[in-house]
């Protein structure tokens, strides 16, 4: 389905019935990485899986900024009159979620992020080198986005009040110290480093993420 908001045409898929859960993918991907997760979550939740601006079937802007992606999501929530959705974001989607939860503290019921970073230097050196090489060769604006943004402070994270779960793989492209800093900066956030997992091995086309998300959402619903 398509929806026009915030000056963009955004594509999304909807599945299931129950309380709403929004899924947002990472850089250069589409909602299709969540194919298995969508099917599993749809047994108990209404799932909204978005193609972010410039990805998949959504329209492409002139330039990319995480703040704009967060505004797209808040406008999506308002347009569909979603009541306190849970949000899961992977990589760039996680960055989007951090901005969203910080700027609009009463919007979400839960925030789950994985493989997110606060600034480019939080990414491991070899990965950053590869991104720079790619940008020099292709001038891909999505590569430039990772080199220039985000710029999220610990003070901004401290204003997040929604129940939060921070995830990363043990072999993630994000430095473990950065992941721990995110969890430490958000009040009462839970942290889970997944053994032997890479940046996306437990996320993309994987059954491993569903029980983690489902258990967290069930846990906070009892509190």
Give an account of the 3D structure.
There is one protein chain. The protein has helices at 35-41, 66-79, 92-103, 125-138, 141-148, 154-157, 176-185, 209-222; strands at residues 2-5, 8-15, 19-24, 45-51, 86-90, 110-114, 164-171, 190-198. It has 223 residues and is of the alpha/beta class. The protein has one domain: Rossmann fold (3-Layer(aba) Sandwich). It has an eight-stranded mixed beta sheet with strand order 1-2-4-3-5-6-7-8, sandwiched between helices. Helix 7 links the parallel strand 7 and strand 8. It is globular, with a radius of gyration of 16 Å. 44% of the residues are buried.
- Poorly predicted spans: none
Q: Tell me, rounded to a whole number, the average pLDDT.
A: 97
Strand content: 15-25%
Please report the number of helical segments. Answer: 8
Q: Would you list the SSEs in sequence order as H and E?
A: EEEHEHEHEHHHEHEH
Name of the CATH class:
Alpha Beta
Biggest pleated sheet: 8 strands, mixed
Total domain count? 1
- Give the % helix: 25-40%
According to CATH, the homologous superfamily is Alpha/Beta hydrolase fold, catalytic domain
CATH topology, what is it called?
A: Rossmann fold
User: Overall 3D geometry?
Assistant: globular
């Amino acid at each position: 389905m398509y929806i026009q908001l915030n000056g963009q045409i955004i594509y999304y898929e909807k599945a299931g019935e129950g309380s709403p859960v929004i899924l947002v993918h990472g850089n250069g991907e589409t909602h299709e990485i969540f194919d298995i997760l969508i099917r599993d979550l749809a047994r108990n939740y209404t799932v909204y899986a978005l193609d972010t601006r410039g990805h998949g079937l959504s329209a492409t802007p002139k330039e990319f900024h995480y703040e704009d992606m967060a505004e797209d999501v808040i406008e999506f929530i308002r347009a569909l009159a979603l009541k306190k959705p849970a949000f899961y974001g992977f990589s760039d989607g996680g960055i989007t979620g951090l901005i969203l939860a910080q700027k609009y503290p009463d919007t979400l019921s839960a925030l789950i992020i994985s493989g997110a970073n606060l600034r480019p230097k939080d990414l491991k050196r070899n990965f950053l080198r590869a991104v720079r090489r790619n940008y020099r060769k292709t001038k891909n604006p999505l590569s430039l986005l990772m080199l220039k943004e985000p710029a999220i402070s610990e003070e901004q994270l401290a204003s997040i009040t929604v129940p939060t779960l921070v995830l990363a793989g043990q072999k993630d492209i994000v430095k473990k110290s950065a992941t721990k800093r995110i969890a430490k900066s958000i009040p009462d956030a839970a942290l889970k480093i997944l053994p032997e997992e890479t940046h996306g091995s437990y996320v993309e086309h994987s059954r491993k993420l569903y029980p983690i998300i489902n258990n967290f959402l069930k846990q906070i619903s009892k509190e």
